[in-house]
Write a structure and sequence with these properties.
6% helix; 7 strands; two-stranded antiparallel sheet; mainly beta; disordered C terminus
């Protein structure tokens, strides 16, 4: 496939579309929809683990997300965060499953 480069005005060959680093893709290159906060809450947790990805830091922490909307993808919360230790915005987020309490009526 070729596209027109808006900066140079030339056509450029593109093998595949650009990928979002906060998304996963299947073997055919299709984006796999990320988990949303609503789905995460339905599965029993209301906290996010946030990890600083700077090599010299590695700080991590928990973020309570009840104030955020249900349709917000879990990986996109990282865009709103900054490491408290080093100040980096290079942060990754994931559900805090270790705080999972199970659904009501569960034996846990």
């Amino acid at each position: 496939m070729t596209i027109l480069d808006p900066l140079t005005g030339r056509t450029v060959s593109v093998d595949r579309p650009a990928r979002n680093p906060r998304r996963s893709y299947d073997a055919d290159g299709r984006e796999i929809p990320p988990m949303t906060l609503g789905t995460m809450r339905e599965n029993g947790t209301r906290w996010i683990d946030a990890y600083c990805l700077e090599i010299s830091c590695g700080h991590n922490g928990l973020v309570h997300v009840d104030h955020l909307p249900d349709d917000l993808p879990v990986p996109d919360i990282a865009l709103r965060l900054r490491c408290l230790s080093c100040g980096s915005k290079n942060v990754r987020t994931a559900p805090a499953w270790h705080l999972w309490h199970g659904r009501q009526g569960s034996s846990r």
